[in-house]
Specification:
A: 266 residues; alpha/beta; 8-stranded mixed beta sheet; globular; B: 422 residues; two-stranded antiparallel sheet; 12 strands
Chain lengths: 266, 422
């Protein structure tokens, strides 16, 4: 792949056998694929910019989110994982680093379960996918879409900083569309899988980092240790006071962690 | 003309905070069933059965039941239980379900069996009606909303096959898979009971009903958009090779008759009191819009002309009548509520019939905060003075019901040909 100017992310449409997939690419260096949250891609953020200083960053809009059309047949995050694995193969990435945020973390974990030899590292940022013990994942079906978005941040100030204009006419349809897409692929069980812990367990040689904000109001931070129980080689890094959208609230620190992962604990 | 009687069977507890006007405004879908008193419910269920028996004795053709979940405004969440009891305690009236929630059932065969049993027990008096349900229904039974419409259609195909073809058979559909379909209960009516479809806003549902030649019942909608919806139905029927007429159209109207005009108005206003009901215009309380419009449940770009008057209600401005939208005065002015002495009620109802031209009319009474006595006074006057005149008007205005003219073909039916109505 050619080295791109990090300042100029390039948007292209991959024509996969499943249908078109919108992809934003920038940066230089080894390949890294980053998957977005359930409320849809936030665009090219400071987090992407920081990653692009060290990696060639591939940020697809997952099927049904952003500019990528919905895969009408898809019924589970595993189905999206199959498409994204094919996208990576289509791009000829070879071995790559995979980062998934929130719902995107679940999709990334599904990809790892079936194709861990293709990954050089897996970074799960407050991922969905496992059932938190004794607690619930915040159910967006029961929440006003704007309140659900707000819950992704550690505090009101942070929310207003990233979403200064809730009257933006494009925002609500985007949230509604993402909400419907989630309802198609993760209705029940909501945001977790009983099978994933077992299918993922085989990825014993994959370097894994689990990152979580201690002020996460969407997925309880205690689930980090449950991922660790599935993948004993995983290192867990907690970000004190950060919310669910770690990539928005702590972009530099998170990018640094991804570029220089902490050693796996003994 | 087919004349039916309807009430939501509200859970009336005047001591409860959700009890409508004068109480605190209720937000829909937040009330806890910790406030449910089975003694009150026992008394009310039996009261509503008594009223249905009276409605039958007064000459109503149909006793209509509906189904809503997790709410005090309708106690008939499992209305097939009520229908089963009516099948045994009534003898003549049709039992009209408007309707069962196809898409919410995880196993449509259970529904096929229940309805067949009710039809058999009642000796062929069941009219089956099918709905998609509102947000509360999908929420209450965790039915995946983006596939509600697909599931509705597949469940329909599966149930019709279950009713009409000898089993056992195997079903491998997109949403339902069954290894062995062979229930030991089949409809009394052949090929199966009539199917009617109620609706308010969704174009898809009306279009589907028209294509299947099922009568379409508009539930408490304004006259003019209702008329426009029937015109859309008629055009779809034309495109599908048959002529639709009054036998295909049902109209529900809130109507209360009483001994004096004053008593009638005073009592009819109770329709807007009682348990807060987001579907009873004027008594909505507040709703959580994201729970009403669950993800992918309704195609918001494909609505019927009725959507404009609903939008007015939400806007809380002034109605074309000059009154607050949904208020008692507003509904009286546009004949959404008809109330008065038999003579006055008949005058208004005749105007509505001339305008909307339905062959099915569902009279919605005895709801909200109305008492048993209120309902019984109205029922008796309907039986003695109102229903006979409605039938005269129907003859004069040529408004045949679906048991007089076949809604599927437009052919006039014999007296005993009810089974073809839908």
């Amino acid at each position: 792949m050619s080295t791109l100017d990090p300042a100029v992310p390039r948007i292209e449409v991959l024509n996969l056998a499943h249908g078109p997939l919108s992809l934003t690419t920038a940066g230089g260096g080894p390949p890294l694929v980053v998957l977005h949250q359930d409320v849809g891609p936030f665009g090219w953020t400071a987090f992407h910019e920081a990653l692009a200083e060290r990696f060639t960053v591939y940020a697809p809009d997952m099927p049904g989110f952003g500019e990528s059309p919905r895969a009408e047949w898809a019924r589970h995050p595993r189905d999206l994982a199959a498409i994204l694995l094919n996208a990576a193969r289509h791009l000829g990435l070879g071995t790559y680093t995979l980062v998934g945020c929130g719902f995107g973390g679940w999709v990334a974990a599904e990809m790892a379960a079936f194709a861990h030899p293709e990954l050089s590292a897996l970074i799960l940022v407050a991922p969905a996918g496992v059932k938190p013990e004794g607690q619930f994942i915040l159910d967006q079906v029961l929440e006003d879409p704007f309140e659900y978005l707000r819950a992704g941040f550690s505090n009101q100030e942070s929310f207003e900083h990233h979403f200064p204009d809730l009257k933006d006419k494009a925002l609500r349809p985007r949230l509604d569309s993402a909400r419907e897409n989630i309802a198609r692929v993760s209705w029940k069980p909501y945001m977790y899988s009983y099978e994933l812990p077992e299918t993922l367990r085989g990825a014993v040689e994959l370097p894994v980092t689990v990152a979580w904000g201690t002020a996460d109001r969407v997925i309880p931070v205690t689930a980090a240790q449950q991922y660790r129980a599935i993948l004993p080689q995983a290192s867990v890094r907690l970000f004190d006071g950060a919310g669910h959208f770690l990539e928005l609230e702590r972009p530099s620190e998170l990018a640094e962690l991804i570029a220089s992962p902490v050693d796996a604990p003994a | 003309m087919f004349i039916g009687h309807f009430t939501e069977r509200p859970y009336q507890d005047p001591a409860a905070k959700f009890y409508g006007a004068g109480k605190e405004e209720l937000t829909d879908l937040v009330l806890s069933n910790g406030d449910y008193d089975p003694k009150i419910a026992h008394s009310l269920y039996n009261r509503y059965f008594d009223e249905k028996l009276t409605a039958e004795a007064m000459g109503f053709d149909g006793l209509m039941l509906n189904e809503h979940h997790s709410t005090p405004f309708t106690m008939g969440s499992v209305c097939n239980i009520e229908a089963s009891i009516l099948a045994r305690i009534t003898t003549k009236a049709k039992i009209v379900l408007l309707g069962n929630l196809l898409a919410v059932r995880s196993d449509p065969i259970f529904l096929a069996e229940e309805l067949a049993m009710i039809d058999v027990i009642s000796q062929g008096r069941l009219i089956s009606g099918w709905v998609r349900g509102t947000g509360r229904e999908s929420l209450s039974h965790n039915a995946q909303t983006p596939f509600n419409w697909e599931r509705f259609q597949e469940a329909h195909d599966l149930i019709i096959k279950t009713w009409t073809e000898p089993g056992p058979f195997r079903w491998e559909g997109r949403h339902y898979q069954l290894r062995y379909v062979n229930p030991w209960a089949k409809p009394y009516q052949k090929p199966h009971m009539p199917i009617w479809v109620p609706g308010v806003l969704s174009y898809n549902t009306l279009e589907w009903a028209a294509r299947h030649r099922f009568p379409y019942i508009m539930t408490a909608t304004d006259e003019e958009p209702t008329r426009q919806c029937f015109e859309i139905y008629r055009q779809i029927a034309n495109d599908n090779g048959y002529d639709a007429g009054p036998q295909n159209y049902g109209y529900m109207v809130k109507l209360h008759v009483d001994e004096t005009q004053e008593l009638a108005e005073e009592t009819a206003e109770k329709l807007l009191q009682g348990p807060s009901n987001p579907f009873l215009e004027g008594n909505q309380g507040t709703v959580k819009p994201w729970l009403q419009a669950l993800p992918g449940l309704t195609n918001r770009n494909n609505m019927l002309p009725t959507v404009a008057s609903r939008a007015n209600l939400a806007g809380r401005g002034l109605s074309t009548t000059g009154f607050t939208p949904g208020s008692y005065k507003d509904q009286r002015a546009k004949r959404g509520i008809i109330a008065g002495t038999p003579k006055n009620v008949l005058k208004e109802l005749r105007a509505a019939l001339e305008n909307v031209r339905p062959g099915i009319i569902m009279i919605w009474d005895g709801d909200g905060a109305m008492t048993h006595d209120d309902t019984m006074r109205s029922l008796r006057l309907m039986g003695s003075e109102v229903l006979p005149m409605i039938r005269e008007y129907a003859k004069e205005l040529d408004l045949p019901g679906p048991f007089e003219v076949d809604p599927a073909s437009g052919m006039r039916l014999g007296a005993e040909s009810g089974a073809s109505a839908g």
